[in-house]
Amino acid sequence: MTTLQIVVIALAFIVAGIAKGAIGMGMPPIVIGLMTFAFPLDQSLAIMVLPAMVTNVWQAIYGGGFVRLLRRFWIMALAAMVGLSCVALSGAHLGSPRAFAWVGVLLVVYSLLALTAWRPAVSRSSERWASPIIGALSGAVVGFTGVAAVPFLPYMQSLDMDRHDLVQALGVMFLFLIGSLTLALAWQGAFHFDTTVSGVAAIAPTMLGVWLGQKYRHAASPETFRRIFIVGMLALGLNMARTLL
Fold first, then answer.
1. Is 185 exposed, middle or buried (0-12, 13-18, 19+ CB in 10 A)?
2. For the chain, how long is the longest CA-to-CA vector?
3. 94-127 CB burial, b ≥16 within 10 A, e <16
């Protein structure tokens, strides 16, 4: 591995960790978006999954609401795992660059709308039928792109949760989604010695970034957090969509 590749890995995971700690999302798109300057997409995915799983475990349990949120979203998580597994078992190659980019376009459109006075909201009673559908679709999108973004992130942002519950709920869902992605990548033979070692080495800079991001989140007001969250989705979408240019 070259010096440039080591530097790219370190910077990508520190930046992604800060986003993960601050708004609870963004790690896969940021890591993949930055690492594809030095690595092919499938190798970037293989390096990303181990530190992503570590951060998702931390994010899911940090805050004390894990059991309560798991009870609320377990059906959605199960549906997401089924959707992703169906894509993997169909023989589709995980991590299509073009699908990745078009998901970014959808995320940009949603984020621009959400930055206006529009306030999308899903009632608690609607979650019974909406969550399984969103979960299955999100799992399928992860299978094709390697990234949990659409429709998962806009849906979670539309639920009635405070910022700390939202971040922890995202951790719960990411735990199942990235866990399923890891198994699917392993089944397709994406892991090798170099990518595994690189993934282990990336855990330290990732957790440093998470710690910095969490400090900022606790200092931000709810409305500031909401705007940062939406701007974060917009930035992720633009980064993902850049390959279409």
1. buried
2. 53
3. bbbbebbbbbbebbbebbeebeeeeeeebeeeeb
- Per-residue exposure over 187-211, b if at least 16 CB sit within 10 Å of its own CB, e if not: eeebbeeebeebbebbbebbbbbbe
pLDDT, tens only, 103-140: 778 778 877 877 776 667 888 889 999 999 999 999 98
Q: Quick one: how far is CA 180 from the chain centroid?
A: 13
Do residues 13 and 202 lie in contact, with contact meaning Cβ atoms separated by under 8 Å?
yes
Structure tokens at 171: 């951790």
Predicted TM-score (pTM) of the model is 0.76
In whole angstroms, what separates CA 117 from the centre of its chain?
A: 26
131 and 70 in contact (C-beta within 8 Å)?
no
What amino acid is encoded at 68 in this protein?
A: R
Break the chain into its structural domains and give their ranges.
3-244
What's the CA gap between 74 and 59, in Å, rounded?
Answer: 16
CB 185 within 8 A of CB 139: no
Share above pLDDT 70 across residues of the chain, in percent, rounded to a whole number:
94
Distance CA 61, CA 42 (A): 29
* 210 φ, ψ (degrees, to nearest 5): -60, -45
